[in-house]
Write a structure and sequence with these properties.
Layout lengths: L2 H21 L3 E5 L6 E7 L2 E5 L9 E4 L5 E10 L4 E6 L21 E7 L5 E12 L2 E2 L5 E2 L2 E4 L11 E3 L5 E6 L8 E4 H14 L5 E2 L2 E7 L2 H7 L5 E8 L4 H5 L6 E5 L2 E2 L3 H8 L7 E8 L2 E8 L1 E2 L4
Antiparallel strand pairs: 1-2, 1-4, 2-3, 3-6, 4-5, 5-6, 7-8, 7-12, 8-11, 9-10, 12-13, 13-14, 15-22, 16-17, 17-18, 18-19, 18-20, 20-21
């Protein structure tokens, strides 16, 4: 090995070690009732984010900074859809990291570090690259993720909840093993920011719902022509959940939903796509057919009940 190669290798090694050490200032171990503690990130002063699936309990949660005793943390809320849980530190003024929320600045092949802590509070790191970047997507748990960010790093026990950091020590997001089978997914910083704000302000993430069970059906050609319906299929209401937004608006069994906010719908995915854009306090105009006649009604969206 030449002197030049040895020097370059040592320089790169030192850079990785320095980034891991710097990142350790805002990385904690989270003790939430499991045999192995999860990792967590001081996201804002006094606020920690961690992997929701690593919290077995929401009371008596504690966090450990490197080489220190445990500190009490109050559970503020969680979003299983994105696997993000939010904690508030008890009487501790902690610095927060620099975030990189602009996914357009990321590149496939970029070197990254996953930095977490062990159950004992030791710093733990894994190196890799960004293996894949993609468009916004929805998890199997129904969470909305702003950008697909999949690093080629191995998460050791306790590293769900760890930070993915770049060569400048900026946090790109939180790593978790719960959102994809046999793969690490990083919940991007933009998604975490949104989830943290919702939980801090409202105690949970807004999951708008109509309260309808619907099935796609074909619209008879005569009816479609008479009512000038754009598509040859619509959604028939098969069930209306009691005390739901749709029940309050008067939607009944057998109604044929043809549009939301004047946009035609022919499948459940159309409805879900529009609901994903909704915010607290929003309402939608449902266009429907009842008794062979067109009608519309305003539905005030509500948060899906937690069960």
């Amino acid at each position: 090995m030449t002197v030049a190669v040895h020097s370059a290798w040592e320089t790169l090694s030192n850079q990785f070690a320095e980034i891991a050490e710097q990142s350790g200032k805002f990385i904690v171990a989270v003790h939430g009732g499991r045999r192995v503690a999860g990792s967590g990130i001081v996201w804002r002063p006094g606020i920690v984010v961690t992997a929701s699936h690593m919290l077995r309990r929401t009371e008596d949660v504690e966090v450990t900074f490197g080489g220190e005793s445990r500190h009490k943390a109050m559970f503020l809320g969680r979003d299983p859809g994105t696997d993000v849980a939010v904690l508030k530190l008890d009487n501790r003024d902690s610095a927060a990291p620099e975030l990189l929320s602009d996914a357009s600045k990321l590149r496939v092949g970029q070197l990254v570090l996953a930095v977490g802590r062990s159950t004992l509070g030791d710093l733990a790191a894994a190196a890799g690259i960004i293996a894949r970047l993609g468009a916004p997507w929805q998890t199997w748990r129904g969470g909305r993720i702003d950008t697909l960010l999949r690093p080629d790093v191995t998460l050791y026990p306790g590293q769900s909840g760890s930070a993915l950091v770049d060569s400048r020590g900026r946090v790109l997001g939180m790593n978790t093993s719960a959102l994809a089978r046999a793969a690490t997914i990083t919940v991007p910083a933009a998604t975490i920011e949104r989830v943290v704000s919702e939980i801090v302000e409202h105690g949970g993430v807004f999951r708008p719902y109509l309260g309808l069970a619907m099935q796609a059906v074909s619209v008879p050609q005569e009816l479609s022509k008479k009512l000038q319906i754009a598509h040859d299929s619509a959604l028939m209401v098969m069930q209306v959940e009691p005390e739901s937004p749709s029940a309050g608006a008067g939607i009944t069994l057998g109604d044929l939903i043809i549009s939301i906010n004047s946009q035609s719908v022919s499948g459940i995915e159309d409805v879900q796509r529009m609901l994903n854009k909704a915010k607290r306090g929003d309402s939608v105009d449902l266009g429907y057919v009842r008794g062979g006649q067109l009608a519309s009604v305003k539905v005030n969206l509500a948060d899906r009940p937690r069960r």
